[in-house]
Amino acid sequence: MQFFAWTDTLGYIAAGAVFVSFSMKNMQALRIVALVSNVAFISYALVDWLTPILVLHGLLLPLNLLRLVQMLRAVREAEHAVAERSNFEWLIAQGERLTLETGEVLFRTGDEADAMFVVAEGELEVVEYGAVLSRGDLLGEIGLFSRERRRTATIRARTPATLARISGKRVKSLHFDNPGFAYHLTRVVADRLIEDVRMEKSGKAANRQGFADCSD
User: Fold this and answer.
1) CATH of the domain at 98
2) CA–CA distance, 214 with 216 (Å, rounded to integer)
3) Is 95 found in the same domain as 188?
4) Claim to verify: residue 97 and residue 58 sit in the same structural domain
5) How many domains does the chain have?
6) Does 100 share its domain with 125?
């Protein structure tokens, strides 16, 4: 009776872990609970040699472990980027490869925003401001998070360039799974909005000065 009670306990632990994993929103915690479930199911299956369960969770265990390691690595890289005030170069591996020829436009002001980009190679420019973007620089994030989801500037390649395209769905996943990334991205968006306001004020002041010079 004790033998059967012990095996039943393993089964209940495994089933409970599966139930908990389906109710979780944090992906790191979900992977850890899934690993606990895998180990419990494997132990349970070994007792009575339940081959289908053993095979299934024998395959899921290394898969969940791999995904957890990848997620923790991404968190460390994001936290390092925040601490060192470095760029988003680590995100290049998270996106789809996109190439541009010199002079080719990535997107224009007013276009629909469905992704953001990280420069992998080459240089791009913000046409309205003349700002130059190079490896590791992020672009397209403001339009992606705006209510209208529209581009706020035109981006053109200054040289042949390669970018990583990160879809809105992937950005949302990274945002919820990786607090370091979420913080870093929020700070970048805020800094760029402040810079846009500053440049707009500088432009208006220059226009007013030009008008005064003409009046003289």
Assistant:
1) 2.60.120.10
2) 5
3) yes
4) no
5) 2
6) yes
Task: Tell me the C-alpha to C-alpha distance, in Å, between residue 148 and each of 56, 70, 90, 112, 172.
Answer: 45, 33, 28, 8, 17
What global pTM score does this model have? 0.55
What's the CA gap between 91 and 5, in Å, rounded? Answer: 49
Residue ranges making up the domain that contains 9: 2-84
In one-letter notation, the amino acid at residue 149 is: R
The pLDDT tens digits along the chain (216 residues) read 444 566 677 777 777 777 777 777 667 777 888 888 888 888 888 877 888 888 988 898 998 898 888 777 776 766 665 555 456 787 788 889 999 999 999 999 999 999 999 999 999 999 988 889 999 888 888 888 778 889 988 999 999 999 999 998 888 777 776 666 666 677 777 776 676 667 666 654 444 444 334 444
Strand bridging mode 155-157 / 105-107:
antiparallel
